């Protein structure tokens, strides 16, 4: 017959998991504060407005909760925060552009600033330094 696991060990691992979570959150917060305080020598770009988010999931609760459809939720966020808005889902940040003039400006006028592939890891340490088909910069020919 299988023995029942000890209840104390569950509390013990749960306690250390909570301590690890709080410690990593504090280290991340202090690291961001340190980086923002030392970066004052160069000009800081202003981020687009963003709705209030939660620590791990970001703005996912704004997009999933409620009875309206997904496009209606995006429209309500755009009417509340403006035509250019920043959303964060997990660790990924997105820019929501809901005005045709802004979209034309981004996609036509400043096209070369936005068409490059994202960096997956550090391309400096890859074998071929951004020469693969998925990591090559735009206009590599």
Automatic annotation (TrEMBL):
Keywords: Iron, Membrane, Metal-binding, Transmembrane, Transmembrane helix. Belongs to the cytochrome P450 family. This is Cytochrome P450. The chain crosses the membrane at residues 12-31. It comes from Corchorus olitorius. GO terms for molecular function: heme binding; iron ion binding; monooxygenase activity; oxidoreductase activity, acting on paired donors, with incorporation or reduction of molecular oxygen. Gene3D superfamilies: Cytochrome P450.
């Amino acid at each position: 017959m299988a023995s029942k696991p000890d209840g104390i060990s569950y509390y013990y691992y749960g306690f250390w998991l909570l301590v690890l979570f709080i410690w990593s959150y504090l280290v991340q917060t202090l690291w961001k504060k340190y980086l923002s305080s030392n970066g004052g020598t160069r000009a800081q770009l202003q981020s687009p407005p963003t709705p209030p988010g939660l620590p791990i999931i970001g703005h996912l609760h704004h997009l999933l909760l409620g009875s309206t459809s997904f496009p209606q939720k995006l429209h309500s966020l755009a009417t509340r925060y403006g035509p250019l808005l920043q959303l964060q889902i997990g660790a990924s940040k997105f820019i929501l552009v809901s005005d045709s003039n802004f979209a034309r400006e981004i996609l036509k006028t400043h096209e070369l600033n936005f068409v490059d592939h994202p960096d997956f890891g550090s391309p400096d340490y890859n074998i071929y330094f951004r020469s693969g088909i998925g990591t090559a910069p735009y206009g590599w020919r």
